[in-house]
Amino acid sequence: MFWNLPYVAVVVLTIIALATIVLKKNLIKVFLGIIILESAVNLFLISLGYREGGIAPIYTNAPAAAMVLPTPQALTLTSIVIGVATSALLLSFAIIIWKKYGSINLDRIRRLKE
Amino acid sequence: MIPAFIVENSPALMVIVPLVAAFITPFIGRISHALRSLWVGGAMAVTSAITLILALDVYATGTRLYVFGASAASMALPPDSGGIPIRIIFAVDPMSALMLVITAISGFAIILYSLASERSYSGLESYYTLYLLMITGILGMVSTGDVFNFFVFLEILSLASAGLIAYRIDGGVAVEAALKYFVLSTIGALAILVAIGIYYGEYNALNMAMIAARMQFSLLDQVALVLIIAALAMKCGAVPMHFWTPDAYSMAPSSITALLVVASQASLYGLFRTVFTLYNLSLNAVTVGWLIIILGVLSMVVGVTMAIPQKNVKRLMAYHAVSQTGYMLLGVGVGLAVLGNQSLLDAFGYMAMEGGLFHIINHAMYKGLLFLTAGAIFLRIGTYNLNRMGGLGHSMKWTMVFFVIGALAIAGIPPFNGFASKLMIYESVFIFNPVLAVIAMVVSILTLASFVKVFHSIFMGPRLPEYAEVKEAPLPMLFGMGILAVVVILFGLFPTIVVESLITPAAHALVNQGAYISAILGGA
Q1: Which chain A residues are Cβ-neighbours of B179 within 8 angstroms?
Q2: Which of A46, B89, B214, B463 could form a disulfide with B145 if both were Cys (CB 3.0 to 4.6 A apart)?
Q3: Is B324 exposed, middle or buried, given 0-12, 13-18 or 19+ CB atoms closer than 10 A?
């Protein structure tokens, strides 16, 4: 049970993130929800790669213990980089919306419908 | 004739050339604008050429493997890895090659068009950079053999597309559309990433062939399947996740809208690849097949009924794009529903799938053509509102001809290509379930009605005084549209040749999961 704790955290974070995305009206808070969701997925990937007693796969002077396949860590790193690009683009959209509409409330961002 | 080096490394080159060219474009743009046009046009021409060389090679010699970081394709399974393909591979089978052909033709025609249509706008360095990145994303998505790599290219494509949808800020409205698209894409991509994590946790592999070979269809696999189908169906604009499509398609510059159509189809490819190659017979083919058929029928009906009352010509075309995506889902869904049953598959399953896949390439051509004509009209008169158009047939004769070709093709009128693929879908779906075929035909008639109305309000009638000075679209734009129009007509006149040489191998490659696995894992 104890070792499932990271997965419990993933589920809790996902629920918090989805609730934020769906319920909040402030654009920045919605973006925060997306960033929390990204963190939840990253935590999921990194927990998958955890092996008790495993060591990092560096061959120089390595002790005789089982090495961990570094793929999940590599995936998480890539995913973090993509997350940074995503956040940057989302925030730059928020800046333009604020300049043009004078508001970042989702109820006010409705000019497309008209 | 073609150097062996290029043929051998074409899978890597077709991704690297646009990627590198994209990031050099801003520097070239500092020197001179003419040089930049030459540079992006040349880069796209080279990319298209390499892509077509690769596609032809795949059709001639079979599935091509490209292993990154290894000296030969036979190193897909390194001898010391314990039978796990640890390197990233590109696996280009005839299905991928079909998508490569679409991207090569559309990408080249659209950049020719952009060179003239975007000339008067500022910030073109970023426009072309993002354009080439979109091409990179699409080409990577359709040729990769690794699920995580698929996710990375999907994100490159989403980021570049969102930037381009917002490119003409338009008082913030375009940014609003891009925001909607990008929030949905990001959440969808994260769902796909969770699915990838599930596969990795279960099978210790990211390679599609390896996952397919080990697939057990446990509860976790079902969760992953649902996540991927939901995310990719949203990305390709199927009802009920279609609401971003009309906003994004109508707000993006017309040239980008035409490329977004291709991008949606890359997502559709991902959906088919997952269902057929990763899962194939291990899933409950009837249930998932019917799920895709229902998505398809909903898209067809809702798309066309929403299109009819639209006043904005691009919004109207966007709803028709949703409706046409339904035909592809319907055709391939019928093929999936009879997957396990060889006699039914031979009787009509293959034909339905071929119709669906043929419709993908046809749709990319005629829908791209229609969006480009809308862009040409906007360039000359500055509005998309149908009520304010009229009498343009007097001054924009070529644009009118191209519009008529596109409109008749989308409505499924012979001798254009839409007729050829729709006929295959009607015939095969009728044997499977007559009601579905009748719905498909009714939707086609409504499409025709809608486009007759649009044609009438744009081109017919007396010459309007406010448009007395309107000239024909510039030559490069006509040339870009002309390429697509010629393809539309050729595919309509010689459908048998196209189906036999391009479509049938693709359909068989999708169905035959064993061949895909053994091509990569070597007979395992």
Answers
A1: 90, 93, 97, 109
A2: B89
A3: buried
Residue B224's pLDDT band (boundaries 50, 70, 90)? very high
How large a percentage of chain B has pLDDT more than 90? 67
Peptide bond into B415 cis (omega under 30): yes
The C-alpha torsion from B128 through B130 and B132 to B137, rounded to 10°, is -170
How many whole angstroms separate alpha carbon B293 and alpha carbon B289?
Answer: 6
Q: Which amino acid is at B87?
A: R
- Which H or E element spans position B65? strand B64-67
- Write the ipTM: 0.94
CA distance B191 to chain A (A): 9
Chain B closest CA to A5's CA: distance in Å? 16
Interface test with A, best of B147, B179, B250 (most A CBs within 10 A): B179
Q: Which of residues 46-75 of A touch B (CB under 8 A)?
A: 48, 69, 71-72, 75
Q: Verify whether the Cβ–Cβ distance B247 to A112 is below 8 Å.
A: yes
Instruction: Verify whether the Cβ–Cβ distance A75 to B172 is below 8 Å.
Output: no
Residue of B nearest to A27 (CA): B179
pTM score of the predicted model: 0.94
Taking phi over 0 as left and psi of -120 to 50 as alpha, with beta for the rest, A20 belongs to: alpha
In a domain, A56, yes or no: no
The fraction of chain B above a pLDDT of 70, given in percent, is 98
Number of domains chain A is built from: 1
Contacts of A79 in chain B (CB under 8 A): 193
All residues of chain A having their beta carbon less than 8 Å from the beta carbon of residue B175 are 93, 96-97, 100
Quick check: is A57 in a domain? no
B176/A112 CB distance under 8 A: yes
Nearest CA in chain A to B182: A90
Q: What is the pLDDT of residues B100-155, one digit of tens each?
A: 999 999 999 999 999 988 888 888 889 999 999 999 999 999 999 999 999 999 99
Closest approach of chain B CAs to the CA of A105, in angstroms? 12
CB contact under 8 A, A89 and B159: yes
Cα separation of B28 and B34, whole Å? 10
**B174-177, long-range: CB within 8 Å, 24+ apart, which pairs?**
B174/B251, B174/B252, B175/A93, B175/A96, B175/A97, B175/A100, B176/A97, B176/A109, B176/A111, B176/A112, B176/B247, B176/B251, B177/A112, B177/B244, B177/B247, B177/B248, B177/B250, B177/B251, B177/B252
Q: Quote the domain boundaries for residue A95.
A: 2-51+65-113
Spell out which residues of chain B touch residue A85, defining contact as CB-CB under 8 Å: 155, 159
Give yes or no for residue B524 having a pLDDT over 50. no
- Calculate how close chain B gets to A55, using CA atoms only, in Å: 18
C-alpha–C-alpha distance, residues B324 and B277, integer Å = 24
Domain CATH for A95: 1.10.287.3510
| Chain Cα centroid distance, residue A112 | 29
Domain-by-domain residue ranges, chain B? 284-493
Number of A–B residue contacts, CB under 8 Å: 82
User: Which pair of structure tokens corresponds to residue B313?
Assistant: 């010509």
In a domain, residue A13? The reply is: yes
Integer CA distances (angstroms), B355 to B75, B109, B236, B241, B254, in order: 36, 24, 18, 24, 27
Give domain status of residue A71, yes or no: yes
Chain B residues 142-161 with a CB less than 8 Å from chain A: 148, 152, 155, 159
